[in-house]
């Protein structure tokens, strides 16, 4: 066995009886029945001498010698001599080890952090907790080995996430009923947390059928499309802007126009696939005009790779807001504090004047989502810390669910003002930034410091269809501005 790169060039000649994958720049290889490690050039960094090995994690790899397990570093130096019956990889600075048929944990120096007394254990998560099993109990311990939660192993299966929430799947042995419970460990002592569904119902905003779609004050305004031979523009966009372009569609499109999701052979007139997918569909020619925030660098590069660029029309403004659980007494943060939190420089609520809440749990969104792009722009050149996968919220309503509905008082998230208070009607607290509340008046006056521009976007090359051009011109009209305001956003800023 050997290795090739992504172009097929042989980087490591086929010299080995077996190989594993690369982790932290090193791969495990077997030669003559023994295992060692090579780097990405094929240079041997740990001579094949071990009966078995595990891949590197947090700079250390488990190795077996003489039927016992220990750990070596990337130079091959033995850091923890082989002495254990079994081991797991390091996670959050601790590795599970088995001695005398029981499991505990060691730190990176080999010092026992938790004495072996458990029948089985799972890894430690970022929140500092691990699931363990002992006798007929399954539960969660902290880094000292102290129990934080104990449940009946016979009836439930549990997992603890990176934000300190335990999910318990329980079966009633008498009735067979299945129950999911949640426990919040973020404040130390386990408390059962209520989880409510935070999914938004877009049907309230669907053109011609939704009860919350804005209409012009004077009633419908007739609109004549210039061409009946060319197709009408296909609209898509961000979830948070759906009320706006749904109102536009209701004002301009035939009354039989209905919301549809894209499918094979279907390219709907009105849909909502979220920011990143809307940009992708626009670039692929599957949508004509999308309603979103500014593109990410990656989305601009995707367009450029196809020889395209974006034609961007500002249509309004919205507040980018940071949110906490309503139980969090924090009333506001400074821009500098927000940046330092998301750069990983501020990690405790006490560092921003809030005592008793412990570590800040800063949720993020996936890359190329509108709010994640807004966060990246807000960082002003400061590197954004990586977000563990378990505290990435994949939908904007996930952010609200994580901050509000999991009852995590120490969580921090971000979204947009109207999505939070208008579409979701959430009870989370929107924080003041630099002492300025995110109100409509403060957006309009320019006092609120994080105001995002809302755009209609088309491909710069998409000018041949007269109906697309007519929509583009109409978006500059007073009627379009009125509908945007009636939908809950700010159409124009006061002169500064």
Please tell me about this protein's structure:
The structure is a single chain. With 496 residues, this protein is α+β, with helices and mostly antiparallel strands. The protein has 10 helices and 31 strands. Strands 23, 24, 25, 27, 28, 29 and 31 form a 7-stranded mixed β-sheet that branches. Strands 3-4-5-6 form a 4-stranded antiparallel β-sheet, with no helix packed on it. A 4-stranded antiparallel β-sheet has the order 7-8-9-10, with no helix packed on it. Strand 21 (178-184) and strand 22 form a beta hairpin. The chain is globular and about 85 Å long. 41% of the residues are buried. Mean pLDDT is 88; it is low at 390-394.
Brief descriptors of the model:
496 residues, alpha+beta, seven-stranded mixed β-sheet, four-stranded antiparallel β-sheet, 10 helices
The number of distinct β-strands equals 31
Overall mean pLDDT: 88
Question: What composes the largest sheet?
Answer: 7 strands, mixed
Helicity level, as a percent range? 10-25%
**Broad shape:** globular
Flag low-confidence runs.
Answer: 390-394
What is the CA-CA span between the terminal residues?
Answer: 68 Å
As a whole number of angstroms, the C-alpha radius of gyration is 28 Å
